[in-house]
Amino acid sequence: VERKNYPALGDPVGPYVHAVEHHGFLFLSGLTAFGSPAQKGSVSEQAEAIFSQIASIARAERVGLDAIAKVTIFVTSLDDIGALRETLLRIYGTALPASSLVRVAGLFSPDLKIEVEAVLAVS
Amino acid sequence: VERKNYPALGDPVGPYVHAVEHHGFLFLSGLTAFGSPAQKGSVSEQAEAIFSQIASIARAERVGLDAIAKVTIFVTSLDDIGALRETLLRIYGTALPASSLVRVAGLFSPDLKIEVEAVLAVS
Amino acid sequence: VERKNYPALGDPVGPYVHAVEHHGFLFLSGLTAFGSPAQKGSVSEQAEAIFSQIASIARAERVGLDAIAKVTIFVTSLDDIGALRETLLRIYGTALPASSLVRVAGLFSPDLKIEVEAVLAVS
Q1: Is A11 buried (19+), middle (13-18) or exposed (0-12) by CB count in 10 A?
Q2: Cβ–Cβ of A16/C103 closer than 8 Å?
Q3: Minimal Cα distance from A63: which residue of B?
Q4: How far apart are CA A106 and CA B105, in angstroms?
Q5: Which of C20, C112, C119 to mutate to test the interface with B (most CBs of B within 10 A)?
Q6: Which of B26, B20, B16, B45 has the alpha carbon at shortest distance from B108?
Q7: Chain B nearest-CA residue for A105
Q8: Farthest-apart Cα atoms in chain A, separation
Q9: What are the residue ranges in chain A where pLDDT is below 50?
Q10: Is C9 helix (H, G, I), strand (E, B) or coil?
């Protein structure tokens, strides 16, 4: 396995690395908008901040967002799911991943409305 | 990566495809009983509807339910877990997968009692 | 796929095996402190019990804890997350995995404060 941190994301602040690669799969840690300007924003604004981080990981790996094979989306409310879906469709374009979405009881900061974990196919 | 939709499941209604394949792994999107006759049924009835969809994906991939490597089971109540376990044992037969089960705060429709995401080993 | 149970963990009590291997990835079922002396302990004590099980699986597979590629951590409270992070950092040493952490609404026993699912890179 190869452990990877990406300078564009800032240092990990906890017991994890940004991503681990094995046999062409890149497992990303759960990403949130924490520490970004969207930290107190809507679920869609937070999703934008999260996929901006995924895009910067993808660039570092010399792949595109179409390398996203699977996402698991944890939200704290289902109220703005319609808007979130629109945002995700725009971000993904035609390269849709496999996806799950569930409402959890909480994320590590009360500001956070969404956490996304992703598996990328990098080779 | 290869993105896959299965006619038997109906068109995806959101920012996802039914499944994505990479290096012999097929990552399925989270499946529910939404839109099936079991949509308002018990957790076991909903589980039957979900695994019927997984079975139809497996058939399309020319594998059996024994190709299920891992499932993550999200339930909204733990009240009928005993019955759910019986149902799953009957569905799996002797080919048990690795599995996690947690109670979440909600799924995208209040009717839903269970969402299952699965990883299949297809080659 | 290869289904695996480990005598050190006791027989699985439900519709699952301890782990399934495919193409060098070992998917572990969600592990908890249920049935261990830590069953009613703090989240950190329960985490110790869980990673002791993962360590025994790793030994059986002739790898170390540095084979852990990804963990998903489900907790029922965020109150003692600081202590949990310290515990995990000590367990992992320098070999940090990719990781997600969410608070769920419940685990299958009210005693349980944490469930961990892990993916190990075994070859």
Answers
A1: exposed
A2: no
A3: B1
A4: 9
A5: C20
A6: B16
A7: B105
A8: 39
A9: none
A10: helix
Residue A76 phi, psi (nearest 5): -100, -10
The pTM for the full model equals: 0.98
- Taking an 8 Å cut-off on Cβ atoms, the answer to whether A3 and C95 are in contact is yes
Q: What share of chain C is helix, strand, coil (3-state, %, to 5)?
A: 30, 30, 40
- The Cα C89–Cα B27 span in angstroms is 30
Any chains having at least 3 CB pairs less than 8 A from chain B are A, C
Instruction: Retrieve residue C85's tokens.
Output: 């992070």
pLDDT along chain B (123 residues), means of 10: 96 96 98 98 98 98 98 97 98 98 98 98 98
The CA–CA distances, whole Å, from B72 to A1, B36, C57, C117 equal: 23, 21, 20, 9
Residues forming beta bridges with residue C31, ordered by sequence position: C116
Which residue does chain B place closest to C5, by CA atoms? B98
Closest-CA distance of chain A to residue C63, Å: 12
Q: What is the DSSP letter of C17?
A: -
Using a CB–CB cutoff of 8 Å, tell me whether B104 touches chain A: yes
Task: Give the SS3 label for residue B88.
Answer: helix
Token pair of C61 as six digits: 């597979």
User: Which residues 60-99 of C are in CB contact (within 8 Å) with A?
Assistant: 66-67, 69-70, 72, 76, 78, 81, 85, 88-89, 92, 95-99
ipTM above threshold 0.85: yes
Classify B5 in phi/psi space as left (phi over 0), alpha (psi -120 to 50) or beta: beta
